[in-house]
Amino acid sequence: MEEKMIVIATESNSKALVLKSYLESNGIECFLRNENVIQGAVSEGVKVLIRESDAERALKLMSQLRDTSAGKHKEQQLRKILVPVDFSEPSHNAARYAVMLAAKYNAQIKLLHVFNSPVVDMIPFTDVASIQIDFDMNYHVLYNSAKEKLQKFYHDLKSFAQTMGYDNVQIGYSIREGYASYGIVEISKRYKPGIIVMGTKGEGFKSTELVGSVATEVSDETHIPLLVIPEKAVLKGVDEVKKVVYITNFDKTDKVSIRKLLRIVSPFQIELHCLHITDKIETPAIAALMTDTKEYIKRVVPKVKVKCDIIEAKTSEKVIIDYIEKNQINLVALTRHKRGLLYKLLNPSLAKRMIYHSEVPVLLFHE
């Protein structure tokens, strides 16, 4: 009986040829599908196939290759935390959590409020001439109101920091006009924080609040890790973060995200769970991928206790929530992938569903 072939990677034509050469030089026979020598690459990418029995050895070789490349780039230390606020209780919750994080990392905090100046576009055309609107005055009223609220928020947070014994945490604030997610992304590019911390409400939110949709829009437009504190999260302190689960799909961005995650949780003594959910029966290839992931984590942080689970299920959200409760997870981490607009509308991402329904903080990475 002929042995089953599996796809070990999907790359551009040039990268597929390099990978094929690398694996074959280490004794693993490879085959390419969708190869297009003339055009260099095809839209769906070139698939690199190997025999299933070679999966574990191939994955180890590929892991060593990636580790060599990754080792050339040092991760930046987490020294700045950006906290977008809208003055709601979830924002207060997130800001207080950010203060505790800042104390742990010796980082500074910038509070950011983005206010939206409404455009009058519903006045009947015949009435425009008879209605005088002083847009400058309207802007200043909105700006001054937002600034007053932000300053109160700032002073309340400083009082919290002093009460908790975090007097040394530096806190600043900034205000700007615009649409929430765009304003957050623009400021993050200038401020260059190591992490963005946001509070969010579940479904049934008001349109003026920083909600799941804004959080996912921010994660779409920036590569900065985004920590979302759900409204239902009960936070006693950052030291309660003992068990973290990373939800893996075994793609090439996983190790970058895991490395960032380990950097973020480095001040804590954690137990790291790696969870993969599949609607297919577990195969040797899936088991090999999980083994490779576990071995990578042990190489990067040898002292971290690692537990890996593969669960067969058709839907992932309920499985994850049940897993969180059963294993007493304190933080969920996952990578958010780029998807087409139509697909987003018809299939809300796992990241967005977790933001709405999770009762523990959710840490999002972007591919």
From TrEMBL:
Tell me the ranges covered by the DUF2007 domain, including all copies: 7-64
Residue ranges annotated for the UspA domain, each copy included: 79-230, 241-365
Q: What Pfam families does the annotation carry?
A: DUF2007, Usp
Q: Which residues form a coiled coil?
A: none
Q: Which CDD domains match?
A: USP-like
Report the sequence similarity comment from the record.
Belongs to the universal stress protein A family.
Q: Which protein are we looking at?
A: Universal stress protein
**Gene source species:** Tenuifilum thalassicum
Q: What is the lineage of its organism?
A: Bacteria, Pseudomonadati, Bacteroidota, Bacteroidia, Bacteroidales
